[in-house]
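look at this stuff:

>
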Amino acid sequence: QAQLVESGGGLVQPGGSLRLSCAASGFTLDYYAIGWFRQVPGKEREGVSCISSSDGSTSYADSVKGRFTITKDNAKNTVYLQMNNLKPEDTAVYYCAVDSPPYCYKDWYPRPPFGSWGQGTQVTILS
């Protein structure tokens, strides 16, 4: 059964770091674009970062550029989001998601029939 499982969330002080993991099982990420989104209560889910399996290119929301890095480990079939210099406004539930074709584009948002989402992991930056 195809599944995405996020991990790595937690509580940190401002300026701290976390690394989120998105492990895929039941399918290979090589045929998908993979992204991270985040959501706070009462707000729409927003795109944070995306990586294209087609060429390895990456994209980031302006709010996280220079602080977050998305990478993909093909051997582990896992995508990571390294988050540095965290700020209170980064507090949210973070979701990973995949969709085909295997490249990211403007306003990329996974939907059926090929889109799939993980269950989310809470990231809280103490203020």
Q: What stands out?
A: The longest strand covers residues 18-25. The mean pLDDT is 96. The chain has no helices and eleven strands.
